[in-house]
Each structure stands twice: as C-alpha cells, then as structure tokens.
Amino acid sequence: MLKNFSANKYLIAFLVIAAVIGLDIFGRRGSDSAPATVPEIPQIQSTEKRAKPAEMNFSEFLSAATAGKIATATINNNEATGTMKDGGAFKAQIVYDAAMLKQLGKSGVSITIDNSTGLWERLGVVVPIVLMVLFIFLILRGPRMAGGGLGGVTQMTITRGNSVPNKSKITFKDVAGIEDAKKEVSELVDFLKRPAEFSKLGARLPRGVLLSGAPGTGKTLLARAVAGEANVPFFSSSGSEFSGILVGLGVSKVRELFKLAKQNAPCIVFIDEIDAIGQKRGKGLMSDHDREQTLNQLLIEMDGFENNSGIIVIAATNRPDILDSALLRPGRFDRQVYIELPDKDGRRDILKIYAEKLKLDGSVDLDVTARGTSGFSGAELANLMNEAALLAVRRKSKTVSAKDLDNARDKILMGPEKSIKMTDNDKKLAAYHEAGHAFLSVHYRDLSDPILKATIIPRGRALGMVQHLPKDEKRSLNLAEIRATLSIYMAGRAAEEVFLGKDKITTGAMADIAAATNLARHAVAQAGLSKKLGMIALNETVGGWGGMSRRENVSDKTAELLDAEIKSLIDKAYGDSVKVITKSKPKVKKLADELLKRETLSAAEINKILGIKS
Q1: Residue 50 has pLDDT above 50, yes or no
Q2: Which of 474, 467, 502, 487 is nearest to 343 (CA)?
Q3: How far is CA 78 from CA 81, 114, 246, in A?
Q4: CB-based burial label for 280 (10 Å; 0-12, 13-18, 19+)
Q5: CB 438 within 8 Å of CB 606
Q6: Cα dist. 23→127, 131, 177 in Å?
Q7: Which residues contact 251 (CB under 8 A, 6 or more apart)?
Q8: Are residues 176 and 350 in contact, defined by beta-carbon separation less than 8 angstroms?
C-alpha cells in the first residue's frame, strides 16, 4: 500500500494543498466581520474581556439591553459576548434574527457581527470533501496498481478466491449413492487423461456438463471427483463471484478465469450456482444489464474452445428451468446430468463411507438406518452420522450406537427434544392423537409402510410422532394406497374427536392436514386420479404476488371443481378414520394408555399390544 501511495505522491500532495487552500479560504471568509444589517447601529472594533465573563440566558440578555446596561455586543451565530456599561464582561446564548438586532440598536448597544468559523468547523466542511476525492481516486486507481484496467481487480479477486488451480484429492471412491451420474461423467476422465485418442477419431467431448438436482445431492463433490480421477487442475468458482459493485467487473472475471484455465489445460472449470449469472435474458431490467453482459462473455468464452483444448466446464444448479437456452445448446453445456436423491442402496453406501470415520458398536445396522432415512440427501446423511457421533460424545461413550443414530434422525426430522413440562391434558391429547395414527397404520399395513415407532416425547414443534420404516423405494402410488395414506394422515384428528369430543379437537393436526392436502392435490391435479376432472394436468406455479401460487392453465370453473375434489378425498379419508377408530375404540384406548406410561413404543410393542403377530 505504501508503494502505491509513493507512486502517486504528486496526486496526494495536490490533495493536501487543496485541503490547506480550502482551510485558508474558509478562514479568510470567516475572519471578515460583517457590519450589522441595521444602519443606525454603530460599529465597534474592540471589546473588553474579563477572565470570567458573566453568563446570561437570552431573556436576561434582552432585559439587560432594554435597561441600558449593555455597552457593546459581538455576535457570532447564536452566541453574544461583550461588555456591560459598568465595565464587566458577559457571555450569552441568543436567538439571532433581524428583530433582535433592531431592538438592541434602539437600546443603544454597539454591535459587531462576527462571521468567522473555528478550526473544527472548517475541518468539518473540508475533510469530507478530501476523503470523498481520495476514495474515488483509490477506486479508480486501484485496478491500475494491480496490473492495469479492470483485469487488475479480477486478478486480485481470483488469486484470493477459490479459482486458484488446485489438485483435487477426491476420487470416485469417495462418491456414493449416485452411480448413474458417475457413469455419465466417467468418460470425461478418459478424455482428460488421453485426449489424443479422441482427437484421432474426430470425437468431440462435451465442452460443458450441467449438474442439476436438489441441494446436498453431491454436485460439487462429483465435479471434484472428476478432477481428482483425471489428476488435472481444478478451478472452482460460483455464480455470485461474478457480480460486484463495478459495472463490467463480472465480464473481466470471466475473461480472466478462462485465461488461467487455458494456461493450465487440461483442467476442470467448475461454476457452482450458475443460475446467479445464467438466468434467462430479456427481462428489460436495468439491474440485469451487468449480469447479462457477464453471461454473454461466458457464452463467448465457451465458444472459443478448440475441440482438443482440454478444458471442460462443469456447472451446478438447483434450478435448471430458469437457465438461458443459449447456455444449454450443443457446443456449450450440451450434456445435462440430473442427480436424484439416493435410493435405499445408495443411502447405505453413503452411510458406509461416513461410517469409516466413526467407531460403531455391534448394535448398528446401516441397512436399517438406510431404510429409515428415505428422502435424505447425501449431505443430510453426513449430518446424521455427525449428529450421532456428537450424541455419543455427550453420553461419554467410546462408540456410536444404534440408539444414537435413531436419536440423531429424530432430531433432524422433528428437532431437538424439548424440556417443557406438559400438562396431563396435553399428554393425554398427544397419546390419543399418536395412537390414532399408529392404529390406522397397522390397520392399513398392507397398503402403507410399516411402523418404526410411536412417541409422545415433544421435539421441535411436534408433541409426538409416528415414524414409518419403508420396505422399499416407491416410485408411484396407486389410488388405494393414496386413500390409505390420507386416512393415516387424518387419524390423529379423528382420534381426538372420538375420545375427546368434537368441541375438544385441537390445532395439533395442522401438519397432518397440510400433508394430506398436498397428497390429494397431487393425485387430482397432476396424476389424473379424479373421475370428474379426468386425466389432465392442472399446473400450479409458485411466484405470484406475496409468494402465492397461481394456476397457469385452469379456468375458474375447473378450479372450483379441483378444490371440491381435493376436499372430497380428504373428507372421505377423515370419515374412514373416524369409522375405524370408533369400531376399535378399546384397542386404540389401550394403545394410548401404554403410550402415556412408556412415552415411546416400538413396532414390536405396538403389535403385541394390539394382538398382531409380527
């Protein structure tokens, strides 16, 4: 920094001189005493001072002047100083206006108007100006100090960021649960290792590969594994890094990134969250202009590759639907790989990778844990294993047990255990509610997933929960399974009504009702399982005013029919739950009583209470 300032000593000297001149100008302006605006008031050039002038407020000052006790007064803004006719000095805070001056003139007071300003007042005017000029100078001059033009800023940013080429230590053996995606990108490794073989045959590998999928599915990990397997430099960046306060900075960053990539070819260029700069163009907003220019530069750079350049661009996004079509055409990101959430076998393989770093005891069965984590992404499974290890440490255990994994899963799904004290009525309500869910789950055991456990231990916002353990991964549901699932969702509210009465139902079924509504809406609006509506897709998109969803291709009449069909499905499911619970009321009550005693019941315990052979 000192070098930079010494190189511009002339400009700094100029700024200092300007500040001094400004202070001098203000000082000269302030040192001139302006005459009073009232002609009949005589001017005096000197005042007598005492070591301790008498202090007066404005009323006392006016009273003394009216009584003819004041001889001279020097006024500077809202302060008056001067001498009394008895020779004493005074100091007063006043309200400075023309009427006051006229009144003092009539009283025979000799007045001097002093417009001078103090040093701090002058600095308060000049220093902000000097600092502003200096700031603008540093902003404009900074890029040149770093190497000239906006490229200098880019060079500094890239050097400090993750775009420094590095060799990834991650390989395909560190990636599990996404075998199909690994196959799609494995040929990229062969190309990077043996590009000449592809060139001889005239084959051209994809210049860009777009990885899409839900958050935490392993997009970044897969990109690093490709670089690690090929043993080539890995440039990592994100879409947000190509935006800044300076217009044109994103364009320069893109240009500099690909310049470095060409110097280190063959290599991998990875751009995470590419939707930050790759959204569809043409919105016409001024704020999007710089982003569109950055996108244009990215398109140009990708078009500039030679077939054997050895540079492969891998990008990741959670929203491929909002990307500009020019990015996805052949010759740019011409291969798209969608990474799904892992299935049961995939989750087990992921758990095994993270289990290698932990000490598990004999009670742990990763197959069971994989079955109980349906819908978990790879990142969530990693978090599950870490949470289990933390729980083991808290109880001062040297190994992680199956109970630690269960508690970690419960914490992730429902939140941490609450230490709140539940009243007897709350416990009774939770027991009947969860007993209803558990009994309907057992009743429809041929159409639904088996129960893992039922609990009334409060976690997060829930006072209890019934967890299921899927036998296998279901890709679709038939109408009978949907109706059974809806009845299970509504069983908690049905049990409240049957055992406590219609006027004693509570808000505890909010999450159940929301889940049932979503499933019924999907069945009717997307899956075509309604006889009245038929097999048509009624699209809904989120993004209206206030985050409300809007229907794209639905008339008002069809929308009313859609809502009626959704309500009909849920009402039938609720009626079915009430009927089943009422018919087996003693068994449901026995289940609720056991929940009140033990708080948590396993699947085997539930079956034993209900007299069902496992």
Answers
A1: no
A2: 474
A3: 10, 11, 45
A4: middle
A5: yes
A6: 10, 15, 71
A7: 293, 294, 296, 297
A8: yes
What number is the average pLDDT over the span 207-220?
Answer: 91
Set 434, 496, 497, 565: catalytic member: 434
Distance CA 443, CA 485 (A): 11
Encoded tokens for 253:
């960053």
493: which residues sit within 8 A by CB, 6+ positions away? 433, 436, 505, 508, 509, 512, 513, 574, 577
551 has which bridge partners? 540
Across 135-159, b (16+ Cβ under 10 Å) vs e yields eeeeeeeebebbeeebbbbbbebbe
CA–CA separation, 349 and 344 (whole Å): 9
> Residue ranges of the alpha helices (H) in 334-451?
344-355, 366-371, 378-394, 402-414, 424-443
- Contacts of residue 215, Cβ cutoff 8 Å, sequence gap at least 6: 318, 377, 379
Which pLDDT score, from 0 to 100, does residue 613 have?
76
Q: Show the DSSP H helices in 203-311 as ranges.
A: 219-230, 249-263, 275-278, 289-303
Residue 186 pLDDT grade (very low, low, confident, very high; cuts 50, 70, 90): confident
552 is catalytic: no
Asked if the peptide bond before residue 266 counts as cis, ω within 30 degrees of 0, the response is yes
The length of the chain, given as a count of residues? 614
